[in-house]
Design a protein that fits this description.
alpha+beta; 6 strands; two-stranded antiparallel sheet; four-stranded mixed β-sheet
């Protein structure tokens, strides 16, 4: 029981305040890829751990004399050992089942709403995918338009759409940087990260961590794509593209280059070194962030395994 209470308190702290350390790290310009790992794994891990812990609370438990690993759990299932369940445990189990059902129903509604949105735009997206099949792999689908515009659409296959106005208004190096930015979105599965964050936030909007995740992840995917484009095409080319494309319309689907934090991104590119030490620390930093954010799911999994093993021993 002590172990359950500890994990419950840890989960509550993560849900209420888990976004604060990530925002603090963002203010100190930690690599956006590292922060994307943190936001995504922490959000998904919190929801999974919450459901698992509620499921464990719904299981009737009683004091069980055990040593070693089982001592942390503090009990096993009464239904398995004696067949009797105290009234207070029945109440806890009932509340837990209601909470779990509420979360699952809200997740189901959020996923259904997202699927409806996807189906609403599906005919247009599929038409674009068919048109893009005539282009070489990684090359954009060029569409008529006087305004400079570029966006990427996730899925299989991913599609990059660019207007003729992009080539008319931007120098070649800026055009290349813009297209590289959109390729980075596709390579990094940024559309999927945004979709998961928005779905979880819609399902559980009262959770501060999940509520803050969609905007943070949308900002971070743009910063991460900027970094990729700057490494391949140079930061100056990315800055030119952002200046020329500021104010472009935001599409109802896909990710557009100059839709968010344009001035901040230009300032960041002017002072960053795309080939510096931070680039070398990206993957070790991402691994460390993943290890930290998975502590809660790992503790929940370990606790659940011990409960089950204790019950069947």
């Amino acid at each position: 029981m002590i172990g359950m209470l500890a994990v419950l308190l840890a989960g509550t702290a993560v849900g209420l305040h888990g976004h604060r350390p990530l925002l603090w790290l963002a203010e100190r310009r930690v690599d956006p890829t590292i922060l994307l790992v943190g936001w995504s794994l922490l959000s998904i891990g919190l929801v999974a751990s919450t459901l698992a812990m509620i499921g464990l609370l719904a299981l009737p438990m009683d004091e069980h004399e055990a040593s070693g690993l089982f001592q942390l759990v503090g009990g096993c299932w009464t239904a398995v050992t004696t067949g009797t369940v105290p009234a207070w445990q029945q109440t806890v189990a009932g509340i837990s089942l209601i909470m779990a059902a509420t979360i699952l129903v809200r997740l189901g509604k959020a996923i259904t709403s997202r699927l409806r949105s996807v189906r609403r735009h599906a005919p247009h997206v599929e038409q674009l995918r068919l048109l893009a099949m005539s282009s070489s792999a990684g090359e954009p689908l060029w569409v008529p338009g006087r305004r400079a515009m570029a966006l990427s659409i996730g899925g299989r296959p991913g599609v990059i759409i660019a207007s003729d106005g992009l080539r008319a208004h931007l120098p070649p190096e800026a055009v290349a940087a813009t297209l590289e930015h959109e390729r980075a979105h596709l390579r990094g599965h940024h559309h999927a990260l945004v979709t998961v964050a928005e779905t979880l936030a819609a399902a559980l909007p009262w959770c501060p961590l999940l509520g803050a995740a969609p905007a943070a992840i949308r900002d971070l995917v743009e910063l991460a794509a900027d970094d990729q484009a700057a490494r391949r095409c140079g930061p100056e080319a990315v800055q030119v593209a952002l200046r020329r494309m500021t104010g472009q319309p935001v599409p109802p689907f896909g990710l557009a280059m100059a839709s968010r934090l344009t001035e901040l991104r230009i300032s960041r590119l002017a002072t960053s070194d795309p080939q510096g030490a931070r680039h070398l620390l990206r993957w070790p930093g991402a691994a460390a962030m993943a290890a930290g954010t998975l502590l809660l799911p790992a503790a929940t999994t370990w606790l659940g395994i011990n409960v089950v093993l204790c019950a069947v021993t």
